Amino acid sequence: MIRLPAKSWRNALFVRLIITNLVVILPIILLGVYLYNWSYANASNEISKNTTAQLSYYLEDLDHQIEWLEIQQYDILQDNDLNKLAVTWNLMDNADKKASIDYLLHRFTSIKNSSVYIKDIYVHVRTIQKTISSNNGVDDFNQLSFNYFHNEVDKKEARLILYDHSLHLSAAKYGGKEGDPVFIVQIELNMDKLRESLQQISVYPESGSFLVSNKMGYTLASNGDTSDVLQSSVIGALHAEENTLITQIGDKKYHLDKAYSEPLGLSVITYLPESVVKKPLKGFNNWAWIFALTSCCAIVIYALSTYKFVHKPLLLLVQSFRKMEGGALNIHIDHEKKDEFGYLYNRFNQMIKKLQTLIDQDFKQTMMMQKAELKQLQSQIKPHFLYNSFFILNSLAKTGDLERVQLFTNMLGEYYRFITRNGEDNVLLAEESRHSGMYTEIQKLRFSRRIKVEFDELPESMERIRVPRLIIQPIIENAYEHSLEKMTNEGLLRVSFGMNEEEARIIVENNGDHPITDEQIEALQARLDSKGESGEMTGMINIHRRIVLTYGEGSGLFLSKSELNGLKVEIRIKLEGAGVIV
């Protein structure tokens, strides 16, 4: 039993903790009813906010779908075979007629299968007195549908047309300035799929949705068994100025949310019973009192013990972790008791020692390997490139072209100065790009008639990015050695740059005599990502590892098929982390 001195009980930590916690608990009890009402209002507003955003997104997506269908409808209007069929039907033999009909049916079926919102596609061709349907094939000319959609198309009142309790899109093809259309395209929307899409936005129990068009006087309900009273009351909410309102329908209150799309001329309304919103808060008041009483008892029992046996030891551990985060690794926690905190302190001490060992052995070895790989790559000066350079210089000297001799020797000197210089391993991307461009200029003197080079300007926003030296030129050299030099046709090398908020990209791609296959690219990428080295990929593996070590996962070399039918090498540099941009 704990005893406190009579004169000092007011200053005891035990008493102060109890008084402090009672001061915290009593306002919670007094504010219980207010919190209940506030929670209900907040939950209601949050549901309405999310629902309104969801409805707006639904209408935007539906608008995109309708725009896509209108594009398909326009393509059908411009279809050469359909126009030819409508104009030259009487001049065609039976084989040509059948071939044209089969082609149109196949195309209509493909368009229909491309969207779940298409139920059927009709083309009413007046000149041949036929109606072609993706579902029913070729049928007799539907004069009633032709006249109806002809009038609706001429009115141009709305994008969607109500016909036979369904929504349609329609467009007409005229052969001249006046007269009836040559043919009319009619796309019937799948109302079952529209109803299913409405059901997907009604995620709460007993909730539902309506798709409404006041101009057409049309309403589509997500639930087929919706009562007329509920439907008429919900539709009446269209005339309210607010997008969210609460209304009494029968013996229940409902939350109504709506959104309107001006391009479509459609509104979406959802209804949600108020009882669904209040359900999670039904036992709030009772549980609030129970929580307050049990909290007071727990405070009296655990106040001192928690502070003495948990808070103080835990605070010591947290402070030690903060010191470690600040870089201090010479921390040691002493604890004589053999309890759980003694185990944690012992493990913490062992973790500090192990972390120091890992830094000394692993991290330092990694940095040494990175520097060694850079020095190894710098030393890989290809002998045949040096020989070819002297051969070019000799040829230029024989021709007496002293100006080009001077230019070439300057370029060659700058090239070897860059790859052999000692100093910092990282350089500005502007320097690396300039060095790679100089290398391509040297190669252009060798292959000016056979190989074309497109070297884009480096964007100004990328010039100050710091990169490891020699990450672009070896990839260009690899393209020359393994593809461009061996081509019988004209070769093309392209170097381009790109950048967004997350990463910078350097793209090197070339063409080839034979298109590279996906299997070959996968094999090359696997060799690139492997930990071992293999022959001709050693230089690219070196570059890949250095970039990953410097900038982390997501950076490195990524291979794919180029639009030029050759290999495309993309250098990605993540812009996160210190030291990437000066």
TrEMBL record:
<dbReference type="Pfam" id="PF00672">
    <property type="entry name" value="HAMP"/>
</dbReference>
<feature type="domain" description="HAMP">
    <location>
        <begin position="308"/>
        <end position="360"/>
    </location>
</feature>
<keyword id="KW-0808">Transferase</keyword>
<dbReference type="InterPro" id="IPR010559">
    <property type="entry name" value="Sig_transdc_His_kin_internal"/>
</dbReference>
<keyword id="KW-1133">Transmembrane helix</keyword>
<dbReference type="InterPro" id="IPR036890">
    <property type="entry name" value="HATPase_C_sf"/>
</dbReference>
<keyword id="KW-0418">Kinase</keyword>
<dbReference type="InterPro" id="IPR003660">
    <property type="entry name" value="HAMP_dom"/>
</dbReference>
<protein>
    <submittedName>
        <fullName>Sensor histidine kinase YesM</fullName>
    </submittedName>
</protein>
<feature type="transmembrane region" description="Helical">
    <location>
        <begin position="12"/>
        <end position="36"/>
    </location>
</feature>
<dbReference type="InterPro" id="IPR050640">
    <property type="entry name" value="Bact_2-comp_sensor_kinase"/>
</dbReference>
<keyword id="KW-0597">Phosphoprotein</keyword>
<dbReference type="GO" id="GO:0016301">
    <property type="term" value="F:kinase activity"/>
</dbReference>
<keyword id="KW-0472">Membrane</keyword>
<keyword id="KW-1003">Cell membrane</keyword>
<dbReference type="Pfam" id="PF06580">
    <property type="entry name" value="His_kinase"/>
</dbReference>
<keyword id="KW-0812">Transmembrane</keyword>
